[in-house]
Design goal:
Helix content is about 65%, strand content about 0%. It is mainly α and about 575 residues long.
Length: about 575
């Protein structure tokens, strides 16, 4: 793709969009950063219990708080990005913070004084725990990882999109491919992290196993900073959060005004100053908010055209920006419910299933690590996404005339549909595993681990559609001055899905304990009914799918009133 240049009539410097020429630097940075962060965090539970001699409850609590805090930290990270510093500066600081955190975590394994003495007898109550100084050093380390994740996650994808010219058709097609390759880099990094790096940490050396992610994060920083002079660096344009609050406050203050034809003629629609962001067209949803832009006798404008009091008068552009965010929320809620499927199957219970199934490879003594089964899903994504991007999308594009082949909501919906048979299949396989274990009389079922491969592979296909679609949807549908906020939508949704999954499992555990059928989710899956839990989550996904279809028919894409962002197709889902 050739460089695209934009020149302003005034003294503004020209904007040179290098598009695909700098994307390898950003994708490479993302891949190494993911390899580093995932390689450091994927095995933390084992690290805390074996090296720091923590009990399982303490270790689980710390890991859950770390994951939740990192996802929620994307909100303040997005706020600081869009309001004060811009994406490049935040990415620079966050990348350095991540490297320092990973390096310090490596030191906790390599330096004897930074962790407790090794416990000879496993699970012994006489093991010496970490001292206060060791705990403090560890907490500082984890805090740096939270700061790094809170800055990198909401900004990296948006920063990549900034490198494409939004007014150029070829560049817009490049954005569609960028989303696919971005997620492909993520899945590849995750696959390597849960296999190779986890193996080195558990079976070779913790110091080496944590040192590898640190080295990869150092390479990530070097790769990112090598393109400093080539990147398009979009300047922050003010707090999106304040804009949202101002629109609501102004609309409430003017709630008694009439939105008649006469009143519409006196709305404030000026956007003072120059902006690289395209103007949002008027939409007819949430018209109550338009009262915030009605000019009354009390409203005054400064010499530069800006309202003297922006808490009483907002522009129609500000109103339309808030409308964009409100329209996203129902889809975001549906995305959270979908992610319950991801958390339940791919992050939690497949590990427990794997622990109670024959994981031996062939006739050897080597066993597939139970935490590595998610690599099957990642491998399915790694194989499918290039095929989808290079073959399926161009073929669909010729039929639908849509730049992405299908609309974003269609892609998300298709992934949600796939999740339902995946859960049903998982329930059938679990029932078969449980039955074989009970017949054998052993804790571990004699059934081969290969039975878990189909459900994980199909789950990966669901991710390839829905999760990539959610990423693309959030980034494209938020206002252009709030791209980093769009990045935090997914990660906050992931945090909410984790909390919702914990609530559901706790509710199921309490409701089924002492029932006729017995506890569905005991420590020993052979004595439970995990298959029923999978069927229940499948039912939840069916209800969510109906809700998502309703949201899709109601949704108005940003850019035009009732058309997709590419202006090609109706917003209605055609699945």
């Amino acid at each position: 793709m050739e460089d695209a240049q934009k020149k302003d009539d005034g003294n503004e410097p020209e904007i040179i969009y290098r598009g695909a020429k700098v994307i390898p630097l950003i994708i490479g940075n993302e891949t190494f950063e993911r390899l580093g962060s995932l390689g450091s965090s994927a095995n933390l539970l084992v690290y805390f219990t074996t090296v720091f001699n923590m009990d399982s409850i303490t270790a689980t609590t710390i890991v859950n708080v770390l994951n939740g805090s990192t996802n929620l930290a994307t909100l303040p990270g997005a706020f600081l990005t869009d309001t004060f510093f811009g994406r490049f500066k935040i990415l620079s600081v966050a990348s350095i913070a991540s490297f320092l955190g990973m390096f310090m975590l490596t030191l906790t394994a390599a330096v004897p004084g930074l962790h407790p003495p090794h416990c000879i007898e496993e699970h012994s109550t006489s093991c010496v725990g970490p001292t206060q100084c060791q705990y403090l050093f560890l907490l500082v380390t984890l805090a740096l990882l939270v700061i790094g994740g809170g800055g990198v996650r909401p900004c990296n994808l948006a920063f990549g999109i900034d490198q494409f010219d939004p007014h150029n058709e070829a560049s817009r097609r490049g954005i569609v491919s960028f989303f696919n390759w971005y997620y492909l880099s993520f899945t590849t990094a995750l696959m390597i992290a849960v296999t190779v790096i986890v193996y080195v940490q558990s079976d070779v050396s913790w110091a080496i196993g944590l040192g590898i992610p640190s080295g990869l994060m150092f390479l990530s920083c070097m790769l990112f900073f090598s393109g400093t002079k080539l990147y398009v660096k979009v300047k922050p344009v003010g707090s999106p959060y304040v804009t949202v609050v101002q629109v609501f406050v102004a609309a409430i203050k003017k709630r008694r005004l009439d939105l008649s034809q006469g009143a519409k003629c006196s709305v404030f629609d000026d956007v003072p100053g120059k902006s690289i962001f395209p103007k949002l067209p008027y939409t007819k949803q949430f018209r109550f908010l338009e009262k915030a832009a009605i000019i009354t006798k009390e409203d005054e404008l400064n010499e530069d055209g800006v309202p003297a009091n922006q808490w009483e008068l907002c522009s129609m552009q500000q109103v339309e920006q808030v409308k964009c965010l409100i329209r996203i929320l129902p889809v975001w809620i549906s995305g959270i419910i979908y992610l319950v499927f991801v958390v339940s199957l791919m992050q939690i219970y497949v590990v427990f299933q794997a622990q109670q199934i024959d994981r031996r490879v062939g006739g050897s003594k080597f066993e597939v690590p139970s935490a590595s089964f998610i690599a099957v899903s990642m491998m399915a994504v790694t194989i499918f996404l290039p095929i989808y991007d290079r073959i399926v999308v161009p073929a669909l594009r010729r039929i639908t005339k849509n730049e992405g082949g299908i609309t974003m909501l269609q892609r998300i919906g298709f992934g949600m549909i796939i999740s339902i048979p995946t859960l049903i299949l998982s329930g059938i396989i679990e029932e078969k595993r449980r039955t074989s274990a009970l017949k054998s009389g052993h804790f571990v079922s004699p059934m081969s681990w290969m039975w878990l491969v189909p459900q994980m592979a199909i789950a990966g296909l669901s991710d390839a559609f829905a999760i990539v679609g959610l990423f693309e949807f959030y980034y494209k549908q938020v206002p252009d001055n709030m791209k980093s906020l769009g990045g935090s939508f997914f990660f906050c949704g992931m945090a909410m899905a984790s909390y919702l999954t914990s609530f559901i499992t706790s509710l199921v555990h309490k409701a089924t304990t002492g029932s006729v059928l017995g506890n569905w989710l005991p420590d020993d899956l052979n004595q439970g009914r995990l298959d029923y839990y999978y069927y229940a989550i499948a039912g939840l996904q069916m209800v969510n799918l109906v809700y998502f279809f309703a949201c899709s028919r109601w949704y108005k894409y940003k850019g035009t009133d009732g058309e997709g962002i590419d202006g090609k197709l109706s917003e209605k889902l055609m699945i």
